[in-house]
Every structure is written in C-alpha cells, then in structure tokens.
From TrEMBL, chain A:
This is Phenylacetate-CoA oxygenase subunit PaaC. The gene is paaC. It holds the Pfam family PaaA_PaaC. It comes from Tumebacillus amylolyticus. It comes from the Bacteria. InterPro entries: Aromatic_CoA_ox/epox, Ferritin-like, Ferritin-like_SF, PaaA_PaaC, PaaC.
Automatic annotation (TrEMBL), chain B:
It comes from the Bacteria. Gene3D superfamilies: Fe-S cluster assembly (FSCA). Pfam families: FeS_assembly_P (PF01883), Zn_ribbon_PaaD (PF23451). Residues 105-154 form the PaaD zinc beta ribbon domain. The lineage of its organism: Bacteria, Bacillati, Bacillota, Bacilli, Bacillales. Residues 3-75 form the MIP18 family-like domain. The gene is paaJ. PANTHER family: 1,2-PHENYLACETYL-COA EPOXIDASE, SUBUNIT D-RELATED, FE-S PROTEIN MATURATION AUXILIARY FACTOR YITW. This is Phenylacetate-CoA oxygenase subunit PaaJ. InterPro entries: Fe-S_Maturation_MIP18, FSCA_dom_sf, MIP18-like, PaaD-like, Zn_ribbon_PaaD.
Length: 262, 156
C-alpha cells in the first residue's frame, strides 16, 4: 500500500469512527431524553450521524479494506480511530440500570462536536478525494438542522436559570478536556494533509475555535482558555474502557452470526 | 426495453414512507440507461442515512425487473448531483399536500428556521414544533388557524 492510500484509509476511519461512536452514544438516550419531542429529534439526528458513518465505512469497503458491517462491528478497540471525546459515557449507571445521564454534557458534547463536523466537512468539500467532496456537500445540508437544534438547547439551558446555566458551562469545560483529540489527524497527519485530503490540524482547530466561540458567546457562555492534552490519543488507537464496553454492546447481536443476512 | 418505458415504470415505484408520490416525482431518479436488456438506474438519496433506501432498491427491482425485455436491473445510489428538495416536481408537491405533508419551501429562503403554509387549510399562521419528525426528511408543525398538527418536508 502506498503512502497516499494509507493516508486516505486512516482519515476515513477517523471520520467513520467519530460519527459511529457518537451516534451510538446518542442512541443510548432513547427514552431518556428530557421530553418525548427530544427523543424523536435526538434519535433522528443519531440516525443521520449513523448514516454518515455508514457512508465512510462503505468508502473503505470500496477501497477493499473489508465489508462495512465487519469494519463497524468486528474490529478490536485498538483499531478504532475515533477521538476519545465521542466514546465517553453519557453519565453514571447503564442504559438498563440507573441511567443517571447528564443532559448538559449531551448538549455540550454533541453541539461542540457538530460544530467541528461543520468545519471538517467544509474542508472535505475541497478534498482531493472526489467521493468525499460529494458526500460532504450532502451531509452539510443535514448538519445545519442539527446545529439549529443544539443551538436552541444551548439557548434554553443558558437562559434557564442559574442551575441549568452552571451545569452547561461545567459540561463545556468537561468536553474541552477531550476536545484537542478531535482536531488530531493522528500519526499519519503529514501524509493525510500532504495528499490534499483535508486541511491541517492547526487550521481545523482555529476555524472551530472561531465558530464555537461565536456560537457560545451569543448565549453568554465561553470556552476555557486552554485545552489540556487528552488522556488517550484515540487517533493512535488508544482508548478507554468505555469504548470496549460500547463495542461489546453494539456488536453483540452481529457477533452471534456475522454471516447472517439482514 | 427503452429508457422511456423505464421512466414510465419508475413512475409506479412509490416512496415507501409517502406512498402517494413516486420516486420520479420526488426528483430522486437521476439517470436511466438501457443496453442489451440491462437497465442501469441512478438514484439520488434524499438523506444520507435514509433507512428506506434498501426498500426502494427492492421495489425498483420488483417493478422494473419483471418487465418484458429486462434481464437485469442495477440500481446505484449517487451523490452527484446532490438531491435537494427543490427537485420535487410540481405534481409531486401537490400530491404531498393530499397526504397531509406540506411541500418544502424553496431552499434560498432558509436561515434559522422555515415557514410553510398549512397543507389542510392553506393558512400561513403556522409554527414549527419540532425540526425532527417521524422520518429524517420531515419536520412537525402546528397550524394555529385550523388547529391541526402537520408535517412538512424539510428544505435541504
């Protein structure tokens, strides 16, 4: 495999795994969101995001890396390239038992991630890999509705009294502890940027900073001044136990019989 | 088998979630090519993760595949050009209304949100309840005139 092919595959895994794992975390909110309208909305957005992951896995499939279903469900945690931010649990407890999920964290994480996704898709619209250009344009038209939705929640919580506001601001700080991992292009960053697939890390980060700062300041919220280096480098395959647990759960049916027809 | 005939047959393939409107009226069929009994159809997905895509593929095969002179149907989902809600035909827009779904407003008018008239009474006195509805492509609105909740196709 030449350097460019390797770079393309690495980037596609980052794109696919970020969306896939965050959509899974979103799906864990089903039935637990603050009200039934939100259950509908959040599920719908998770479905979009999961659909985007499928597209990226299918691109990998077309490059001969493996079947999309297998790539999503049968890889080991250390083969995943998602940023650690998206694998963090929704709160204490488990979906079935005592799900003490943190809604402020859900709003902060999803909104800040989707703002980054906007920046990333903008850049991919100029990618040297034509399929990424086409699909990014399409994903953008869906993403804008997600952004409208999370902006509304941000406004609600920021203006919803002291408790709601403080919790949201604390959640933003919590999200930012992992945020740097999102901008990373991993160990193959140089080859990825060199191949013209996407803008470099510093550019992506700067564009996100401008966008996120503006989005939050509208509601009197702010980002921390500095971001720590995340505890694990997800782009290099370093992950927390949370990812292992998530993969075991989401692939449990598929693993029963990977050859079954769906 | 001719391309014209395939387009006619595709008019019989309905949107699985909105059975009054065909894929052609939805503007989802981009190209049809016929050569030696092999029919190639390019379909533009409305939403990337739409779960109805596989059903559409099957329905196309069931209707076009059994027609005389067809050996094989190949359905391909493509994103060039991108499907936009402006591709829905005028006939399609009217049919959506009869199903209780407001057709999408034109793309250029959208900023933070969007307004559409009620598909039942035509009033503009409506408000958006939830950007997200029962399917990725639809939102839920409420008509303050006739007091009916209704769905609208999202402008995308």
């Amino acid at each position: 495999m030449n350097t460019d092919q390797k770079a393309l595959q690495e980037l596609l895994f980052q794109l696919a795994d970020d969306d896939f794992i965050l959509a899974y975390r979103g799906s864990e909110w089903l039935g637990l969101a603050p009200h039934i309208e939100e259950d509908v909305a959040f599920s719908s957005m998770s479905q979009d995001t999961m659909g985007h992951a499928v597209m990226f896995y299918e691109m990998l499939e077309s490059l001969g890396v493996g079947s999309a279903d297998d790539l999503a469900q049968l890889r080991k945690p250390e083969d995943f390239r998602n940023a650690v931010l998206v694998e963090r649990v929704n709160g204490t407890g488990h979906y079935i038992e005592q799900p003490n999920y943190d809604w402020a964290y859900a709003v902060a994480r999803t909104y800040l991630y989707e703002l980054f996704k906007w920046v990333r898709l903008q850049s991919l619209m100029n990618s040297s890999f034509e399929p990424l250009v086409q699909i990014s344009r399409k994903m953008m038209s869906e993403l804008r509705y997600h952004l409208m939705h999370w902006q509304t929640w941000t406004k609600h919580l920021a203006n919803g009294g002291e408790d709601a506001r403080n919790r949201l601001q604390a959640a933003i700080v919590q999200v930012c502890a992992d945020i740097d991992g999102l901008f990373s292009l991993g160990p193959n960053a140089e080859a990825i940027v060199g191949a013209g697939l996407i803008a470099d890390e510093a550019t992506l980060k700067q564009l996100w900073l401008e966008k996120a700062t503006e989005a939050l300041s509208k509601n009197g919220l702010s980002l921390p001044d500095t971001f720590p280096t995340p505890s694990h480098d997800g782009r290099a395959g370093e992950h927390t136990e949370a990812l292992t647990d998530a993969l075991n759960t989401l692939s449990s049916v598929y693993r029963l019989d990977p050859s079954a027809a769906w | 088998m001719t391309e014209e005939r395939v387009w006619e047959l595709l008019q019989e393939v309905k949107d699985p979630e909105i059975p009054v409107i065909s894929l052609v009226e939805m503007g989802m069929v981009n190209k049809v090519q016929v050569q030696d009994g092999i029919v190639q159809i390019e379909v533009l997905p409305t939403f990337v993760g739409c779960p109805a895509l596989e059903i559409m593929k099957r329905n196309i095969a069931e209707i076009v595949g059994v027609a005389e002179g067809v050996q094989e149907v190949r359905v391909q989902f493509v994103f060039e050009p991108a499907w936009t809600s402006d591709r829905i035909s005028d006939v399609g827009r009217e049919k959506l209304k009869t199903f209780g779904i407001a057709p999408p407003p034109e793309l250029l008018q959208i900023e933070e949100s969007f307004d559409v008239p009620c598909p039942f009474c035509g009033s503009s006195n409506t408000r958006l309840d939830n950007l997200f509805g029962p399917a990725a492509c639809r939102s839920i609105l409420y008509c303050d005139s006739c007091k009916n909740p209704f769905e609208a196709m999202k402008p995308v």
